[in-house]
Structures are given as C-alpha cells and as structure tokens.
Amino acid sequence: MLRVLCLLTLLTMTGTAARADNLLSRLDDLDNDYQIMINNSHYEEAAQIADQMYLIHPSGNKARFYLLYACKKAGTPAPAWLSEPWPANSPEDIFYRTLAADISRTDASR
C-alpha cells in the first residue's frame, strides 16, 4: 500500500511539474508575441496578449504592466481592476509597480 501511495505521489508531482513547464513556456511565447506587437505598433493586440498572460499568472505584475502600457499606447482605457493595489512580493513586482506608477504620474502631468 505504501508503494502505491508513493507511486501516486510521484506521478502527481511529475504531472504538476509538466503542467508548470508548459505554462512557463506559454508565458515565454506570449511575452515574445507581446514584444513583437509593441514593436510593430499593434497595441490593441498587445493588450489582448497581456490579458492572456495575466490569466496565466495573475499574481505577478509583469502582465499587469504590459496591459497598462499597451492600453496607454493604444489610447484605450485600462481595465478598472488595474487601479487596485499591485503586489510587491519580489524585486520584479516592485520594478513593474514602479514603472506603472511612473506612467500614471506622466499622464497626470499632461
């Protein structure tokens, strides 16, 4: 019985790791696609990609910033939920939160 339990645990962990790898790979692909859209001034498409990134990783600020930036460049309103407090759990979170604040300050001074 213990062997079966250990095997099931191992299989579950392996499956979870594989799903995590797939999600990270998908995020990398979306990040690349976003950059291409921004570079080509396709801001509305970039916003859609950033939204997909947020759905995969809602606890990070990179996709939030990407969405805010693309909306600003497209001249479209950012989703209201972007005005809610942003996490500050990592240096990357703080970096993107600071960039977002800078964009908001720049808009306010115009």
Describe the structure in brief.
The chain has helices spanning 2-39, 43-56, 62-74, 91-108. The protein has 110 residues and is an all-alpha fold.
Describe the protein.
With 110 residues, the chain is mostly helical. It is 75% helix and 0% strand. It has four helices and no strands. Helix 2 runs antiparallel to helix 3. The radius of gyration is 18 Å and the shape is globular. The termini are far apart.
Rg from alpha-carbon coordinates: 18 Å
Strand content: under 5%
Secondary structure tally: strands: 0
Which residues sit in consecutive blocks of at least 5 with pLDDT less than 50?
Answer: 4-8
Mean pLDDT: 85
Q: Helix tally?
A: 4
Proportion in helices: over 70%
Given the C-alpha coordinates, what overall shape results? globular
**Element string (H = helix, E = strand):** HHHH
Structural class: mainly alpha
Q: What can be said about the biggest beta sheet?
A: none
End-to-end CA span: 69 Å
